[in-house]
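Researcher: Re-running this chain for the archive, since the previous output was lost when a drive failed. Same request as before.
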Amino acid sequence: PKGPEASANRDVNLDIGETVHVDAWNADGTGSVRYRGASWSVAAAPGTPLEPGTHRVREVVGNRLILEKA
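Model: Regenerated C-alpha cells:
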C-alpha cells in the first residue's frame, strides 16, 4: 500500500505531529506561529475549525505548516 506523501510523512519530516499554539486565525484560514525559535506561516487543514489554541502539524508545504486541531 502507498504511504502518505513526503510532505505529510513523519518518517521524512519530523515536524509532522508536533504541536504549536495558534493565538488567532486570519479570516482566510492562515496565520503565524512561533515554532522552533522562528516565525512560521500556517494554514488550517480543510475542515479544521478556526479556533485559537493547540494545533498539530499535519503537513509541511514549502515553508508553511498545515495544521489540524490537536
